[in-house]
């Protein structure tokens, strides 16, 4: 049946087919749709060690979301032996921010591959440039040339004191090259200087749901659960 439709479409004038597909894609763009589904994206932000990864794991156990950690995608890229691997590794070890085009390409691929319509994106956008570029991201739906603006439903912000974040990272023990006191201090500085402005931007739009992340993890999850339960 589908093959028949494709064959029939081939008989139509190309400009007409192109116009039809572009119109459909434009409708999808206007409604934040991907492949006919409304895509829901939630940004999970907070300082290093605030508990983003821990809580995202809890969220996917209870709610139908796919968890994409930008940091994990970058670490996987290093381990894959990609040509950018060494450069990404150096940037992470220095606690700096990887160029937007690299991180966004990995997120785009993961979103398309995920095939779901609900994503929690953990640890991204890291700076204003990340945010602006992602909001005009090009997702390949019908034509490569279409610009699809994906804006988050809301931003979940894990608010935690620096002392507590530092203590947690020093005790994490997962063999990460950036879990040493020198890099941790750099990451905390980058968070304040580059990532907090992103949270302030969304705050000014009334899109931030702030969580007290200094509490024990199960208590933090109770607060997170309440937000996700109410959005369903
Ligand atoms: N509420 C909490 N109380 C105490 N320890 C916690 C809490 N949440 C997470 N942890 C622990 O703190 C460490 C950091 O947590 P997690 O990896 O979830 O943070 P993160 O925000 O994803 O950090 P990063 O930005 O470095 O990836 C882990 O060892 C985790 O088990
Ligand atoms: O959007 C991003 C996300 C991460 N990075 C770099 O990776 C490390 C680790 O990220 P975590 O979220 O803590 O796992 C981070 O310090 C950055 O160096 C990035 O550049 N852009
Ligand atoms: Mg993490």
CATH topology (fold) name of the largest domain: Rossmann fold
Number of alpha- plus pi-helical segments: 10
Query: Which homologous superfamily in CATH is the superfamily of the largest domain?
Result: P-loop containing nucleotide triphosphate hydrolases
What is the CATH domain class of the largest domain? Alpha Beta
Beta content comes to 5-15%
CATH architecture of the largest domain: 3-Layer(aba) Sandwich
Small ligands present: adenosine-5'-triphosphate, the ligand O=c1ccn([C@@H]2O[C@H](COP(=O)(O)O)[C@@H](O)[C@H]2O)c(=O)[nH]1, magnesium ion
How are the strands of the biggest sheet laid out side by side? 4-5-3-6-7
Helix content: 55-70%
What is the string of helix and strand elements? HHEEEHEHHHEHEHHEH
Radius of gyration: 20 Å
As an assembly, this protein is single chain
Average pLDDT number: 87
Which helices and strands, and how do they pair?
Elements: H1 2-11, H2 14-30, E1 33-34, E2 37-38, E3 40-46, H3 52-62, E4 66-69, H4 70-79, H5 85-93, H6 100-114, E5 118-122, H7 128-135, E6 154-159, H8 162-170, H9 181-204, E7 208-212, H10 217-231
Parallel strand pairs: 3-5, 3-6, 4-5, 6-7
Antiparallel strand pairs: 1-2
Helix pairs in contact: 3-10, 4-5, 8-9
Bound molecules: adenosine-5'-triphosphate (ATP), the ligand O=c1ccn([C@@H]2O[C@H](COP(=O)(O)O)[C@@H](O)[C@H]2O)c(=O)[nH]1 and magnesium ion.
